[in-house]
Structure formats: C-alpha cells, structure tokens
C-alpha cells in the first residue's frame, strides 16, 4: 500500500514529552512524513551527513483500510487495515533548531514500517511497543499509556483531512529515544503483531 500521507503524532506519551523537556499537548500534535521516507523491513536507514544526531522512535503504526472522513471515535477502528511496527526516525538536533519538522522527520529512509496486521479494537489498549538497538531494549511502551487513544487519534485526524486507504498514522513514541550510529541494527517489535528490523548505514555522497 502506498500512502497519500503519513500522519504522525508528537508527544503522545507523557514520559517521552518530559524526557525532551516538552509539555504534554492539550490536543494531538500532528505533523507529516512524506511517503518518500518509507522503507520496508530489512532495508537500510541511511543517516544523512551533516545533520547531526539521528534518533530512533519506535511506534505503533496504523494502516488505514477504507476512507475515513469525520468519523466518530466509535467508528474509527473499522476504517483501519491493521497495525504495524514503525520507526519515526528523527534528526533530533535539526528538529530542535527548526520550527517546522519537514527536514528533521522527512529525510529518505526515515520511515521503516511493517505490513498491516489486523487487531481487534478491544485488544488495542493491551498493545506494547519495544525498541531494541543491537539487541538491547531501549524503549518499552504500552498503548494504554498513550495520552490520546488510537481510535481518538483516527477520529481527530479525520475531522480535518480525509484518510485514504493505504494512509499511515504514527501514533507517537514512548520514552527512551536515543541516537543511531552506522552499523547499528534497530528493531521495533509489537508483541503478537510483528518485528521490524533495519540496519543503519551512513550516506555516501
Ligand atoms: Mg514520533
């Protein structure tokens, strides 16, 4: 599925907002990654030269399965195709310097994601997301700890922009984010759903 857009949610876990010195927002904080960021499981994350520190952000990705426009929270989950592990790769120093995150979040290869796996709505609060770098656990979040629930996020986004089949939502990262280095292998796992493993390389001009 090729998304028309990748809609991302910032600061959706209170502990992660705090670790970067940010407040928890009153409403979902939305931004985009362009579809040109997408890479598949096993493909390389390419660190751009000259942009400073680049971080992993393991997240629960949600693939849209049918058009959603102004859907209610109760109808939101029926519009999805499933969830998948996702890595919202971020040029952290650049993100701090710039008010718009188009570059910090939007470089080529900055959105590894898996294929959609159907999940029952009642099982959403029990989902967990674990990030490992070179086999060491760095993040372990629970969907139950999200500031805004997944159905709420879908309903909220669809109030402003029509979600099309194949669109992707990155639902925010838990605390524990950290930098990637060339030669690393970063894995995002949603237990019971799947694993996403990507090697990290440096850009060779
Ligand atoms: Mg993120």
Explain what you see.
With 205 residues, this protein is an alpha+beta fold. The chain has one domain (6-202): Fumarylacetoacetate hydrolase, domain 2. It is 15% helix and 34% strand. The protein is built from 5 helices and 15 strands. The chain has helices at residues 14-19, 73-76, 92-97, 102-106, 150-158, and strands at 6-10, 29-33, 38-39, 45-47, 54-56, 58-64, 80-87, 90-91, 111-112, 128-133, 136-142, 168-170, 178-179, 185-190, 194-202. The strands form 4 sheets. The protein has a 5-stranded mixed sheet with strand order 2-1-12-6-7. The protein is globular, with a radius of gyration of 16 Å. The protein binds magnesium ion. Residues 8, 57, 59, 88, 170, 172-173 line the site of magnesium ion.
């Amino acid at each position: 599925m090729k998304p028309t857009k990748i809609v991302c949610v910032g600061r959706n876990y209170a502990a992660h907002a705090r670790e970067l010195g940010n407040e928890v927002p009153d409403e979902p904080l939305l931004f985009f990654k362009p579809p040109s960021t997408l890479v598949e499981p096993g493909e390389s994350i390419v660190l751009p030269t000259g942009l400073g520190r680049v971080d992993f952000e393991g997240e629960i990705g949600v693939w849209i399965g049918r058009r959603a426009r102004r859907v209610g929270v109760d109808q939101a989950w029926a519009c999805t195709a499933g969830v998948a592990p996702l890595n919202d790769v971020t040029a952290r120093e650049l993100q701090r310097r710039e008010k718009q995150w188009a570059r910090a979040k939007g470089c080529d290869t900055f959105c590894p994601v898996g294929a959609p796996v159907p999940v029952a709505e009642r099982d959403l609060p029990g989902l967990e997301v674990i990030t490992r770098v070179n086999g060491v656990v760095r993040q372990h979040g629970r969907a139950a700890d999200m500031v805004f629930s997944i159905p709420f996020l879908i309903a909220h986004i669809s109030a402003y922009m029509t979600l099309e089949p194949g669109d992707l939502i990155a639902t925010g990262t838990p605390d524990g984010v950290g930098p990637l280095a060339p030669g690393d292998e970063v894995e995002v796992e949603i237990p019971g759903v799947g694993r996403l493993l990507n090697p990290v390389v440096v850009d060779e001009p």
